[in-house]
Sequence to fold (879 residues):
Amino acid sequence: MSTAALPAKEAIVSSAIALATRGLSKAFGSLPVARDIEINLPIGARYALIGPNGAGKTTLINLMTGMLAPNAGQIFLGGDDITMLGPQERVRRGLARTFQINTLFAGLNALEAVTLAVAERRGLAGKFWRGVGSHSEAIDEAYEILRKLRLGDDCYQVTRELPYGRQRLLEIALALATKPKVLLLDEPAAGVPQEESGEVFEAVASLSDDLTLLFIEHDMHVVFRFASHIIVLVGGAIFTEGSPAEIAADPGVREVYLGKRKHG
Amino acid sequence: MTSATTITPQAYLQAQSRWHPLEIAFWLATLLPFVLFPDYLSLASQIAITALFALSLDLILGYAGIVSLGHAAFFGIGAYTAGLLSKFGWGDPLSGLVLAAAAAGLVGFAASFIISRFRHFTLIMITLGLGLLAFEAANRAHWLTGGSDGLQGMSIWPVLGIFKFDLYGYTAYAYSLAALFIVFLGVRRLINSPFGLALRGIRENWVRMPAIGADSRAHIRKAFTIAAAIAGLAGAVLAQTTENVSLESISFQRSADVLVMLVLGGAGRLYGGLVGAAIFMVARDQFSGIAPQYWYFWIGVLLVTVVMVLPNGILGGLSHIYARWRRK
Amino acid sequence: MLPPIFGVLFDGIAYGMLLFVLSVGLSVTLGLMNFVNLAHCAFAMLGGYVAITLVNEFNWPFLATLPVAFAAAAIVSVALERTLYRRLYRASDLDQVLLTIGLAFISVAIAAYVFGTTQQPVETPEVLRGSIGVFGLDLGKYRLFLIGVALVVTMLLVAGLEYTRFGAQVRAAVDNQRMARGLGIDVDRTFASTFALGSGLAGLGGALAIEIVGLDPNFAFTYLVYVLIIVSVGGLGSIAGSFAAAILIGVSDVAGKYYAPELGAFLIYLVMVVVLMWRPAGLVGRR
Fold:
């Protein structure tokens, strides 16, 4: 299948594109939050989504993951139209996300949380006869994910007692437990104190190359370091997109975003 | 500081479901009434039945986080089913128990499709509404249920053909306690299974569940159906051991009382309902002389205290103290 | 002569108006903060007992006790809000349910202790006794008064919501709490004031209810169910919804008792469950 530029409103999506949207639109009453958005994420991409506050970045992720229903448009995962599917179905097909504000199982410890995610993926979560402890493959898989994210030593600690930075890592661990093909990261280092944010970025950097990544980020240093392609969202619509060099040089972007505010 | 290097993840999770010596002590203690309080065996029987009912509510409230103000509907359905079976000629207790639990479970399954679709205030109101509807239905259908006069004409055969239910209450308590223990074993397994973990996930963070690919509604339907069946079983035991069914078994008062007991003992801790039921019922027995509104005064004070001071009930408070003592 | 249905309708509407005054406060506070206050009818009961005490012990004219019933309930609600409710704004549904049911239990016991368990009689003021003949219908004067009071309350509430700054804050907070906070609206304070107003109205309703349904310590729970049904059917945070639902429930209840007494409350519960399944946020609600 050709990976050359696709016609704009073409409803057929190449299978080399991991995640795509066509004409995605959403409005709350008379307030548009997403306007005719078209995105193409090639497999293995490292794309960044930036834009001023209120531009609709998290809304876009909510639309892609099915937490919000669009007014118009389509979403394709690996060439399949997933627009009508519910959130958990999209996760089963390989689309996972992390939340900007930690959305964790506060009373479970890290091992239990990730084991639960693994169990759900393996279809074990409905089983009520054998103890959790007897499902050794699921547990081993969960522990391996935690270990890779340097959470292995803390895995028995209750989530709410973990330092904020480690909780952010757990956010990622939970998403990884679903064995996603596409991972949407919503400000992965948001709220993490300076000393701990390095761990988060290393975790992001170490993610497998066949995992397709789209991350929302405000810190321009992070964006330029990790992203191969940047999409700029303003007022719910795509303002422009391009390589980091192009975006850095674009005066329009500078005016709308880079110049106007100090990063943080 | 960390014991992570000395214990494997699998061993850790397996250790979670091991029997704690306190648990064994608890169950041994339930045998004491036979020896120490033979005059109170009928009260002990009531406690066991109520504890079983509280356990069923814990499954949906303490573990899945569903606040139900109408759970007595299933208790009542079980009670009336067992009662009607007996009244119309089939007085065998064990099979009656199974059929009553199945009936309650079936209704619970149907209701679970409604319950799983709603949250928060709407859900509370729907459970209240369904509970009140069940009460009204039982009340109006007095040709079947006896209405406010209660179900008459029950006659229960001896358990396994040998053990008669008599005035001394030995059979009744043994029967109730056995039902409680066996079901408890099943619930305990369930809690320690991946399904139990999923229920806790639902309670801990509803939003995260679909994000890890979980079908929360399906889990809730399953839990609700099982809880309804257990509640029905408890109701059937009551009907069979007292050879009587009254509207009280399906009333809002029973729904509210079991909620208080569970909260008192501590929801989400498996034993909370059992402990709460024991304390509540013994206290009520001791204070049975005073007028109902004054009894509820103290329940009110208790509720306010628990919410403001002891959010995880008695067991929660005890485990908190124990944890702090261990850290010293 | 008009057929009896008009009499039933009139009684039903009057009853509905009473229920509206009782319910509107709970609807707005639930819509504002999602705070489940099951002690709402205990405030109504308080207002009723204040009115009774003033009339029977201090020989006040009945009409003069109404504002005092409103004020007493409002003041007590402020005290409770400051000490207890405030801590639970972000607590779980269960905690809110338990705390407020506990307070309701306590209030019932206090009422029983102080006033006894039988219904308290109150003499209707001379001017409100009897009925007026309209088109061959006997319209009870008290019921007309009730409808009048409810309509005045409704107009004041609607005007207040539309035209005052406070009203705008309430509407914003009901619509989207997070955004309201973002705009600098102190939602917690807005809630406290609205809560006082709503509880005051409940107290007023309690005083008004004495003549229609009588007052005994169980009032706090007996009418709680009706109020909850009206609030959930009408839609949280909606005055129009509560108004419509109150009339619907009031008329259904009176008509049910007149035409089909065997059904009892079955119909009302069924209506509630069905409406909630069809529209979980109530007929006019938005969440």
Summary: The first helix of chain C runs from residue 4 to 33. The radius of gyration of chain C is 19 Å. Chain C has one domain: 4-278. Chain C is about 75% helix and 5% strand.
